[in-house]
Amino acid sequence: ARLQELYPGEKIALVKYSDPDDDNVMIDCEIMKEATDLGEGGDHESRPETVDTPLECDANGKIKFIAPTEKGPYRLFIYIRDNHKHAATVNIPFKVE
């Protein structure tokens, strides 16, 4: 798969998630710079810097954000939790050109 390339300030919208039990879910998301402090097998890695850019995640599964203005590699992290203590997470790498 090819890394998604975005332009600085480009508006992006993502939609798609499902809960097999139709539970109420809570969605949180954040954009971080790509990690540069990489370890091996369980080594400690510093948490990358969170990027301050307009970002909306709603309970209907819609995620909208504006690409960071600084060029470079990033990841969009999405955290989904239901009211039965189940959770899922995904991260999507992208690059601002």
What topology does this entry show?
Layout: E1 4-6, E2 11-15, E3 25-33, E4 55-57, E5 62-66, E6 72-82, E7 87-96
Parallel strand pairs: 1-7
Antiparallel strand pairs: 2-5, 3-6, 4-5, 6-7
Keywords:
97 residues; 4-stranded mixed beta sheet; globular; mainly beta; 3-stranded antiparallel beta sheet
Short description:
This protein is mostly beta strands and 97 residues long. The chain has strands at residues 4-6, 11-15, 25-33, 55-57, 62-66, 72-82, 87-96. The radius of gyration is 15 Å and the shape is globular.
Characterise the protein shown here:
- This protein is mainly beta and 97 residues long.
- A four-stranded mixed beta sheet has the order 1-7-6-3, with no helix packed on it. It has a three-stranded antiparallel beta sheet with strand order 2-5-4, with no helix packed on it.
- It is globular.
- The mean pLDDT is 85.
- Helices cover 0% and strands 47% of the residues.
